Amino acid sequence: MSSGSRRRWVRRAAAGVAAALAFGSLSVIGAEASGGRHHPKPVKVRVMSFNDLHGNLEPPAGSSGRVTQADGTVVDAGGAAYLATHVEALESQVENSVLLSTGDSIGASPLASALFHDEPTVAVMNEMGVQAMALGNHELDEGYAELLRLQRGGCHPEDGCVFRRRFTGMDFPVLGANVYLKRSGLPALRPFKVVRSGGQSIGVIGATLEDLPSVVVAEGITKLRFGDEVSAINRTSRLLQRLGVKSQVVLVHQGDTPTSNTGPNGCNVTAGPGYTIAKGVSADVDAVFLAHSHMQYNCVVDDPRGNPRPVIQGLSFGRLVSVVDLQIDPRTRDVLRKKTVAHNEIVTRTVTPDPAVQAIVDEAKTKSAPLANRVIGSITADLTRATPVGGSGETTLGNVIADAQLAATQNNGAQIAITNPGGIRTDLTYAASAGGEQPGQITYGEAFAVQPFGNVMQTVTMTGAQLDEVLEEQFRTGNTRITLQISSGFSYTMDPDGAPNERVSNLTLDGTAIDPAASYRVSINNFLAGGGDGFSVFTEATDVTAGPIDLDALVAYFATNSPIPPPPLNRIVVV
Ligand SMILES: [Zn+2]
């Protein structure tokens, strides 16, 4: 236990004693008034969870750092030190509380956390007093063995202890009721944790999306099997019932997309994988926390016995805390469902940042600076996201990134790589930057700024006809064309003024015409694979094989191909 979490534990214990005393005196008064026949008052326990923090220690920038409210107004939100302050305020409003995370706390993180294998984020979560976390897909970005290291502590096997001299691991378990060891079928992670609050036991069941292998690098999870969420949760719920733990909450790293924005506490979710799980799990489960889709909603959904229970998700990057206030009947030890109240609390930045968490954030920022300046390769001239006037939208940086992704997925049989321009966040400039390196040298920090999302590459099978269709989708919104960036060897002709669905033609691969009926292996990132930016045809692709993180592909390409000149813009021919 770190000093921070010990401090919090002491505070929680003190609150518990205070609650017991208050409860005791109320009982006495009640007993006198009713002549000895009294019903014990329900015990109030506040259960809080945040989801998809993704190592956002510093307040996230741009739209990633804003919450849109129901009336359309936006509020700046997020930042670990602000999150800690809001959690403390929520804790101080009640006598009993529990803090949880619904997964993707780490992985796809900004540089200050990512450079240290997210050890700074683990330190922040320990300091905040997180009691249990559901496994998210990004917790497995660096594989199962690395997750176990983060759980148990110890230095990284290759990089050593780079954040602090010692790393003691998570003070809380990572839960995954539907995660099994392939060979034995035994649980690969703890399925649940029983937390005590206000003298009551609450069973916290964690599960992750069954489809996790489609969004995680395959080689890190070869030992694992991911099963059906509902059956695993229900099996765990039955076990808890047998143990006498009647109050149960579920953390599922899966979620949905509302049909429209109704603010942090609206509910416009009526379908989707998260909703299906939330509706389907045992009626003994009293609340469901969702994640993964980075959306905000606060719904009430009937359980299989027809009793309503909250189903809630709180955006991402520490912008919201999902709060479920339970009332537990001490006689039945079960939740009085009708008394449950839930809300999403906005992590505004108008409060004082928590000093202990801020100190960890500052330490990570300071220590990441030299590593960010590590030279990974060089360029001979600027690589940019610019396209000539009247150009196709093809860019030099886009071409290099697509080529890097093709090279990094050769093991998957990739023939073509396609990437979205929105995933390329800034240019690589030849001039020496503030990092102090020579002109033309590219640092890890610069590459990270270009590809900060930690998207996972996937290689899929598409027909030639589907390739044509997905390129036609570049034009579906009229003037706001989104030109996909394509790898060397793949080429086509674009007629921006052509008739709908006839703007793309003459597709070739290494000079040979693409056959509409033939199959091709195409590498895309997980964002496009999910139909991102409206490229729905990608979702029809088959035979998904996972590859590396996009940034790792770019770094590896710089290592083998430097110095890299700007490629000619001749892959897409405009007529
Ligand atoms: Zn996720």
Kindly describe this structure:
By secondary structure, the chain is α/β, with parallel strands linked by helices. The chain contains 13 helices and 28 strands. The strands form seven sheets. Strands 1, 4, 5, 6, 15, 16 and 17 form a seven-stranded mixed sheet that branches. Strands 8-9-11-12-14-13 form a six-stranded mixed sheet, covered by helices on one side. A hairpin with a 2-residue loop joins strand 8 and strand 9. It is globular, with a radius of gyration of 26 Å. Residues 104, 136-138, 253, 292 line the site of zinc ion. Zinc ion is lined by residues 104, 136-138, 253, 292.
What's the short version?
This protein has 575 residues and is α/β, with parallel strands linked by helices. The strands form 7 sheets. Strands 1, 4, 5, 6, 15, 16 and 17 form a 7-stranded mixed β-sheet that branches. Strands 8-9-11-12-14-13 form a 6-stranded mixed β-sheet, covered by helices on one side. Strands 22-19-26-21-27 form a 5-stranded mixed β-sheet.
Question: How are the SSEs placed, and which strands pair?
Answer:
Elements: H1 3-33, E1 43-50, E2 66-68, E3 74-76, H2 80-92, E4 97-101, H3 111-114, H4 119-128, E5 132-134, H5 144-152, E6 174-175, E7 179-181, E8 192-197, E9 200-208, E10 224-226, H6 229-242, E11 247-253, H7 273-280, E12 287-289, E13 296-302, E14 308-314, E15 320-329, E16 334-335, E17 341-346, H8 355-372, E18 375-378, H9 396-408, E19 416-419, E20 441-443, H10 444-450, E21 456-463, H11 464-472, E22 485-486, E23 490-494, E24 504-509, E25 512-513, E26 519-525, H12 526-529, E27 542-549, H13 550-561, E28 572-574
Parallel strand pairs: 1-4, 4-5, 5-6, 9-11, 11-12, 12-14, 19-26, 23-28
Antiparallel strand pairs: 1-15, 2-3, 7-10, 8-9, 13-14, 15-16, 15-17, 18-20, 19-22, 21-26, 21-27, 23-24, 24-25
The chain binds zinc ion.
